[in-house]
Specification:
single chain, alpha+beta, about 475 residues, about 25% strand
Length: about 475
C-alpha cells in the first residue's frame, strides 16, 4: 500500500473541518478515490495519514473512536490522541510517537507499542504500523498509519498472568491432560505433592500417578469428561514418585476449545492425608469413649459386687463401694495433664508405682489389703508428659479385663507388676495368678485389645506381648525410657 495511487491519495486528502476527501484529487478517477475512501472509512481498525512533515491529512472513524476525539486536519500533528505514553507509563511526546519516527527516518516502525489517553482520562494501549508514502520519484510525501487496539489483549494477558500466578502459587496440585489422559501441564504444587518435576510428568500418561490396583478409575473419569461432566471432590489414593501412597480429594473439569469441543481436562488434587488421620483419630476417640463408658459401668458394677462379698450389712457395702469409687476418681485426677496456667510449685511428680497403685486400687479388696492381691516391684521412675495418660489407659485396661475375666475376678487371685531396666528400655511385666483357668487366647481381637496395641506402639513407641498361660495371663511391655520420662 505504500506506493499505490490510493495511498498517495490518502496522503493528499485534506478538508480541515470534515475529513472528507476532495473529489478533484489528481492521479485517478474521482469515483475510484471515493470508493477507496469509503472502504478505508468503514474499516474496523484505526487508519490515518499525514503529510511529509507530520500534519494529519486523513483519519477514519475507528481512529477517532480510539483517540476519543476528532483532531483537526492540517493542524494536529503526528497522532490524533489527546496524550501519549510509553508502555511503561512514561509520558511520550507526539514528536516521539511511531509516526513521527517513521517520517523522520523514512523507515516503517512496524509493531511499535504505545498508550493513547483520551480526553476523558481513559487509556488505550495500541500497536502502531506506520508506513512511509513516496511518489514516483521516490520522495517522501507522507505516511499512513494503522493502529491496533490491544486493550482486550492486554486484559486477557493480565488475566492469564493472574490465573497462572494463582496456579503456580497454589498449595494444591493443579495439572491438565488431553482427552487421551496424557499430562499437558504441571504446577509446583503437583511437584510438591507427587515428587515429579514438570519435565518428568508432562507428556506422560496420568496413570503414572495411579496405583496399579486403581487403574480402572481413569477410563471412567475420561468417559465422564468426554460427556462434559465435572467431577467434584472425588476422594481416592494416588502414588508418589517414591512409591508412597497419598490420600487426595480430586476435582476434574472438562477443558474446551474456542468451538466448545472438549479437548482435555484440568485436575486439582488436594492432599487430605492429615484430614484422614484426624478423622481416624476422631473415630478412635469416639470408639474409645464408648468403650471407656461401658468399662466404667462394668467397673462400677464390679466394685459393688466385690464390696458385697465381704460386706456384713448395707452400711459396709456402701462404705466399701464408696472408697473404691473414690480411688478410681483419684486415678482419673492423677492422669489429667496439667495446663500451663498451673502453679509449677504446686505440682508433684507422678511416680510409676503410685500411678500403678492408684489405677489398680479400685480392683483390690480393701478388706483383704493384708493379702497383697496386687504386688508392685522394680524401679520407681518419674512419669511425665503424655506418657501418664497413655500408661494409665493401659493399666486401666489390664485391670478392668482382669476384674472381668482374670485373677482379680477371683477372691484369691493376685497380680504382680514388676519393672526392670534394660539400657534405655523399661520392661514392665504383668503376671496374673489364682484366677479362672485359661484355655487360650480369645478367638478374635476386641476393640480394647486394638486400643491397647495402638497405645503401646503409637503413643509410647514400645512393644507388647501376651502369654496366655493356663494359670494366668502374662503381659510384657517394653517401653523406651525417654517416652516415659521425657
Amino acid at each position: 500500500m505504500s506506493n499505490t495511487p490510493q495511498a498517495a491519495t490518502i496522503a493528499s486528502l485534506h478538508v480541515p473541518e470534515t475529513g472528507r476527501p476532495r473529489k478533484d484529487v489528481p492521479d485517478g478517477s474521482a469515483t475510484a478515490d471515493i470508493d477507496f475512501f469509503q472502504i478505508v472509512q468503514d474499516l474496523p481498525v484505526a487508519v490515518y495519514s499525514t503529510d511529509a512533515v507530520g500534519r494529519i491529512t486523513f483519519y477514519n472513524e475507528a481512529a477517532a473512536s480510539l483517540w476519543g476525539r476528532h483532531p483537526k486536519l492540517g493542524e494536529d500533528w503526528w497522532c490524533g490522541s489527546w496524550r501519549l505514553y510509553w508502555p511503561d507509563g512514561r509520558p511520550m511526546g507526539h514528536d516521539e510517537c511511531p509516526m513521527a519516527v517513521t517520517l523522520e527516518t523514512g523507515c516503517a516502525a512496524q509493531g511499535a507499542e504505545a498508550i493513547a489517553e483520551r480526553p476523558d482520562g481513559t487509556r488505550v494501549p495500541f500497536l502502531a504500523y506506520p508506513t512511509p508514502l513516496r511518489n514516483g520519484a521516490g520522495q517522501l510525501v507522507g505516511a499512513v498509519n494503522i493502529l491496533v487496539d490491544i486493550a482486550e489483549r492486554k486484559r486477557n494477558e493480565a488475566a492469564a498472568q493472574h490465573y497462572a500466578a494463582i496456579v503456580e502459587s497454589s498449595d494444591d496440585a493443579i495439572l491438565s491432560k488431553d482427552i487421551n489422559g496424557v499430562i499437558t501441564s504441571w504446577n509446583d504444587g503437583a511437584q510438591r505433592l507427587f515428587g515429579y518435576t514438570s519435565e518428568e510428568a508432562v507428556g506422560k500418561p496420568v496413570t503414572l500417578l495411579i496405583p496399579v490396583e486403581r487403574h480402572d478409575e481413569e477410563p471412567r473419569i475420561l468417559e465422564r469428561i468426554r460427556r462434559g461432566e465435572r467431577i467434584d471432590h472425588y476422594e481416592t489414593v494416588r502414588q508418589r514418585k517414591d512409591g508412597s501412597l497419598v490420600d487426595i480429594s480430586l476435582t476434574v473439569s472438562p477443558v474446551r476449545d474456542r468451538s466448545g469441543n472438549i479437548i482435555g481436562a484440568s485436575k486439582i488434587a488436594r492432599n487430605i492425608t492429615e484430614r484422614k488421620k484426624a478423622e481416624e483419630q476422631q473415630d478412635l476417640l469416639l470408639r474409645e469413649m464408648d468403650h471407656r463408658i461401658k468399662n466404667l459401668f462394668a467397673l462400677a458394677i464390679g466394685i459393688v459386687s466385690l464390696s458385697g462379698r465381704s460386706a456384713r450389712n448395707v452400711q459396709d457395702l456402701v462404705k466399701s463401694a464408696r472408697e473404691r469409687l473414690s480411688a478410681l476418681a483419684r486415678a482419673c485426677a492423677l492422669t489429667l495433664l496439667r495446663g500451663p496456667g498451673d502453679d509449677p510449685q504446686a505440682r508433684k511428680p507422678t511416680m510409676l508405682h503410685s500411678l500403678i497403685r492408684t489405677i489398680i486400687a479400685p480392683h483390690e479388696n480393701i478388706e483383704e489389703a493384708q493379702a497383697e492381691r496386687i504386688r508392685i516391684a522394680g524401679p520407681d521412675l518419674q512419669i511425665s508428659g503424655p506418657a501418664i495418660s497413655s500408661l494409665a489407659l493401659l493399666l486401666h485396661e489390664f485391670g478392668t479385663n482382669s476384674a472381668k475375666f482374670g485373677a482379680l475376678s477371683a477372691q484369691n487371685g493376685q497380680v504382680e507388676i514388676v519393672g526392670a531396666e534394660h539400657g534405655q528400655t523399661l520392661v514392665l511385666t504383668w503376671t496374673e495368678r489364682g484366677g479362672p483357668a485359661i484355655a487360650g487366647p480369645p478367638d478374635r481381637e476386641g476393640f480394647g485389645a486394638a486400643l491397647t496395641r495402638a497405645t503401646v506402639t503409637g503413643q509410647l513407641g514400645g512393644e507388647i506381648s501376651q502369654d496366655w498361660r493356663p494359670e494366668g495371663l502374662v503381659i510384657r511391655l517394653s517401653l523406651p525410657r525417654e517416652r516415659l520420662t521425657g
